């Protein structure tokens, strides 16, 4: 359903170009959960931003369900069916939680519907539904609200960038449950960027991004042991995962 072909992205630093993503190709199948992992600074979040149209690739193609969306902007990609939850969600002063959820859903959501969504991500709904989405919300609250906005309507493809970051153990279990339900329904495809072994263990396939390149992609049961066998950087990376 998603085909990514030879995607490259660079930034200009002090007059010279620096490659952040180099020739990335992969696909995501219908109803599949692909987990993207790899060392810090490898390019995972940048890849997610390029897929969502927040950053523009220098070259390459993105095809969604047979439609070339390479030149689509962020709104057009959302319209085409891609949902995205940022690693660090933006705050919107003056916007209330229920308004934000209705905006994300593309239709008015009643207070009861907002409460039900918030409960799915472990937020005590009554306390939050009329709160402002400003810096009075904690990092973990913002993160869960952001995830609720993606869950607010069905997408063809949902991209979650480190959904586990800053989330407490209890809410994390609820999130895992949400991902399991999406996976079971097979209606939506999922890309999860994660360092969490529990999330990787749910994946149909795992892709490792290192130094802006695809260092490996395959079935979870093939890729995780393979990561261990590879060079010292991969070994130490996996060791850190085991320690989490
Ligand atoms: N706009 C930019 N300008 C300069 N450098 C950038 C820009 N965007 C990303 N980078 C650099 O590109 C590299 C990849 O960053 P990215 O956030 O994609 O990594 P990541 O794999 O998601 O890391 P983490 O696991 O720490 O979240 C980093 O070295 C980052 O500093």
From TrEMBL:
Pfam families listed in its UniProt record: ABC_tran
Entry GO terms, CC: plasma membrane
A molecular-function term among this protein's GO annotations: ATP binding
Residue stretches making up the ABC transporter domain: 2-236
Gene3D superfamilies noted in UniProt: P-loop containing nucleotide triphosphate hydrolases
Keyword entries, A-Z: ATP-binding, Nucleotide-binding
UniProt keyword Nucleotide-binding, yes or no: yes
InterPro entries documented for this protein: AAA+_ATPase, ABC_transporter-like_ATP-bd, ABC_transporter-like_CS, ABC_transpr_LolD-like, P-loop_NTPase
PANTHER family named among the record's database cross-references: IMPORT ATP-BINDING PROTEIN
Protein name, entry field: ATP-binding cassette domain-containing protein
Origin species: Lentihominibacter hominis
């Amino acid at each position: 359903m998603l085909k990514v072909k030879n995607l490259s992205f660079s930034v200009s630093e002090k007059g010279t170009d620096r490659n952040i993503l180099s020739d990335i190709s992969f696909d995501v199948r219908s109803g599949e959960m692909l987990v993207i992992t790899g060392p810090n600074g490898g390019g995972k979040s940048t890849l997610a931003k390029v897929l969502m149209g927040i950053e523009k690739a220098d070259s390459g193609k993105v095809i969604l369900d047979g439609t070339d969306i390479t030149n689509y902007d962020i709104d057009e990609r959302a319209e085409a069916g891609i949902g995205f939850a940022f690693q660090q969600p933006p705050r919107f002063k003056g916007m209330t939680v229920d308004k934000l959820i209705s905006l994300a859903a593309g239709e008015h959501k009643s207070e009861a519907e907002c409460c039900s969504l918030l409960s799915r991500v472990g937020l005590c709904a009554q306390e939050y539904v009329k709160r402002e989405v400003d810096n009075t919300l904690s990092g973990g609250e913002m993160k869960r609200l952001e995830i609720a906005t993606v869950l607010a309507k069905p997408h063809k493809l949902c991209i979650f960038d480190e959904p586990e970051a800053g989330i407490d153990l209890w809410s994390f279990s609820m999130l895992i449950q949400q991902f399991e339900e999406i996976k079971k329904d097979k209606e939506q495809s999922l890309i999860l960027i994660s360092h969490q072994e529990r999330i990787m263990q749910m994946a149909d396939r795992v892709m490792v991004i290192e130094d802006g390149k695809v260092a490996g992609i395959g079935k979870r049961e093939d890729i995780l042991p393979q990561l261990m066998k590879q060079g010292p950087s991969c070994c130490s990376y996996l060791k850190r995962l085991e320690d989490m």
